[in-house]
Amino acid sequence: MQSPPAEIGASVEEIDTPALIIDLDAFERNLAKMMTIAREANVAVRPHAKTHKCPEIARRQIALGAAGQCVQKVGEAEALCEAGIADILVSNEIVGDAKLRRLARLAERATIGLCFDAPEQVDAASRVAREHGIEFGALVEIEVGMERCGIPAGAPARDLARRITDAPNLRFEGLQAYHGRAQHLPTVEERRQAIDGAVEAVRTTLQALSAAGLPCARVTGAGTGTFRLEAASGVYNELQVGSYIFMDTDYARIAGEDGAPYREFEHSLFVLSTVMSLPTADRGIMDAGLKSFSAEKGLPWMRDAAGLEVVGVSDEHAKLRVGPAAPELRLGAKLMMIPGHCDPTVNLHDWYVGVRRGYVEALWPITARGASR
Amino acid sequence: MQSPPAEIGASVEEIDTPALIIDLDAFERNLAKMMTIAREANVAVRPHAKTHKCPEIARRQIALGAAGQCVQKVGEAEALCEAGIADILVSNEIVGDAKLRRLARLAERATIGLCFDAPEQVDAASRVAREHGIEFGALVEIEVGMERCGIPAGAPARDLARRITDAPNLRFEGLQAYHGRAQHLPTVEERRQAIDGAVEAVRTTLQALSAAGLPCARVTGAGTGTFRLEAASGVYNELQVGSYIFMDTDYARIAGEDGAPYREFEHSLFVLSTVMSLPTADRGIMDAGLKSFSAEKGLPWMRDAAGLEVVGVSDEHAKLRVGPAAPELRLGAKLMMIPGHCDPTVNLHDWYVGVRRGYVEALWPITARGASR
Fold first, then answer.
1. pLDDT value of position A11
2. Residue among B73, B279, B290 whose CB faces A296 most closely
3. From the list A19, A96, A275, which residue is nearest B274 (CB)?
């Protein structure tokens, strides 16, 4: 783990680069706004720690009323549990006894749920839970249009729910119905159609469960691009939103309700980078590249820098085109870059540097960075 | 830092996933082959630690005759220095007194060089070196066609070399002449043209230096895609190759001398991943995604798995198309994936798991993972 890139109280100019920055004012407004929307819609929020990987942020979300946390990986659950987070849903299938045993140890001190889309997984989790004398919460993940994991809606999902109900040391809780691919569809209409399909899959499954006498307490899913749709659906009662705390250019490129760019939340996550070379009048080289931000969803944008555009990235560098409207760049200047994709960008860094009014107010370790197992 | 995904002596089947694997036999053949080629061409090899970020690998390269190590970042130099590596070139410009002071502390116990493309950088490094009573080796980085950092060849480079020669506590050593963009040009002919241009830029600068009475002991550059060209150029005397130890699909897609795919080195780096869901007969879901390999240069390939193709990746998952020729997949099967781009993939992991004949022989910490400052 690297040392922090600044000390508390330092000015932004004093932060060593590249550094992962949170604009704390914008971040706090994002956190509060999501809770307000969810309360008005009468749905729970279980924010996704795959985005932030940080117990400090989990605590803040829970203090504002979040139901607990989602994770994708056992290692993320371990990091949160270690920090005292008491209710964790692994919104993912877990295969292999080594991983199940690690989860079982966590279930000795926290409420742990996980997802299933195959009977073998159910049998293995039940066996390990029994061996450890603990109980897992269990959700059936249904296919809702993402074409990733998930068992078909309706009868197959009902049969898996029954298998869970019949399995010792598993507690059937409901449905995982996340449509990841829908989050970044360009228009609201496309996202609405996708989520309409997901809602239909959920309804079909709820009817099958009801007919079989299997009570379904939770339907959980949604992300930052579609959560208003799931919240209004009447079937989802828990939102697994993650990126809303930070935003990124991938979300900023989709359209919002009015057709204008989606601006439900503010950019609060940045990579601070230094101008390290100015070889020509129209080219500046920054000291942050693919090891400081993820670029598979597009190049980062510059914040507050009219006339500056990132036109290329390599492992340790980003290349800026310096346009006629740009302010004069000087060697050593520090500039904020908006990452293309927040989750994998966070996973590159060991520390968040929380900034308010130009000064470092917080240093939060990204405890679950690299916790991919 | 995460714990290792396996213990020494474990079988590949027992390695927890995702895990970053080195096939030690292939890796050792790659290391030896590069040294043989360089010896025959009478050029030095200074392998790039930006690729591996691992003192254990640096030691093995030096034991085979490498001149030392290249790094891009001060943090990488610190990790190597701490492990006793005695000769380190920062093949990059370093801006800011905080970073220069860290380098100066390293120069108290190791030979430290760095690159310059602007007079302000020279003045700052000289001042900091003087304050610390140490000396930095100093190279002028010239623009050779990459259009990233670098001062123009010829007179401007000569003037900067003179400024270095005149600056206290800097020791002018030669030219940094790396053409990164050339490495992945699709055909040998395109790469040859690019490196011909780089060689021309070096020659022009050598003539200017010679006419000014400035001796130039080193011309350093080259990468895994073009090193034979620089080695044969008659002007380069040091190769900064990095990826040759591992290979990746980005290098495997370019053409070699005979027009066939480039196979100068063997794939020795893999991400081991588990089949975690089998929702349909033609779809398998792996437990490794963008947090376990970098995908901005293309999707990973499957090793030894005819009929299996990665057709999509998300943050924690990869989606396989299971073709008719594929062996029957079972839930829990562990498969080797070949990353698209080795450097940023390594930077996601805390451990190399070195495997030989199906068993774990070595666990090497990736000490400089995340050392981007």
1. 98
2. B290
3. A96
pLDDT digits (tens, 9 = 90+) for B70-109: 999 999 999 999 999 999 999 999 999 999 999 999 999 9
**What residues does B89 pair with on adjacent strands?**
B70, B113
What residues form DSSP beta bridges with A321?
Answer: A283, A309
- Is the distance from CB of A85 to CB of A55 less than 8 angstroms? yes
Q: What residues of A are in contact with residue B151 (Cβ under 8 Å)?
A: 279
User: What is the C-alpha separation between B272 and B292, in angstroms, rounded?
Assistant: 10
Structural domains of chain A sorted by starting position, each given as residue range(s) with its CATH number in brackets: 12-19+263-365 (2.40.37.20), 24-252 (3.20.20.10)
Whether residues A149 and B120 touch (CB distance < 8 A) is answered with no
Displacement of CA A270 from its chain's centroid (Å): 16
What local confidence, expressed as pLDDT, does residue A306 receive?
84
Report the alpha-carbon distance of residue B213 to residue A283 in Å, rounded: 32
pLDDT, block means (10 residues), chain B with 373 residues: 96 98 98 98 98 98 98 98 98 98 98 98 98 98 97 98 98 98 96 98 98 98 98 98 97 92 96 97 97 94 91 97 92 97 98 98 98 98
Q: How many helices (H) and strands (E) does chain A have?
A: 11, 17
d(CA B149, CA B308): 41
Please tell me which residue of chain B has the smallest CA distance to A331: B95
Neighbour-count burial for B225-252, b at 16+ CB within 10 Å, e otherwise: bbbbbbbebebbbbbbbbbbbbbbbbbe
> Which candidate from A73, A292, A314 shows the least CB-CB separation from B316?
A73
Give A345's contacts in chain B (Cβ within 8 Å).
Answer: none
Q: What is the pLDDT of residues A261-311, one digit of tens each?
A: 999 999 999 999 999 999 999 999 999 999 999 999 899 999 987 899 999
Q: Give Cβ neighbours of residue B32 (< 8 Å, ≥ 6 apart).
A: B64
Query: Could you report how far apart the first and last alpha carbons of chain B are, in Å?
Result: 17
* The pLDDT value given to residue A327: 86
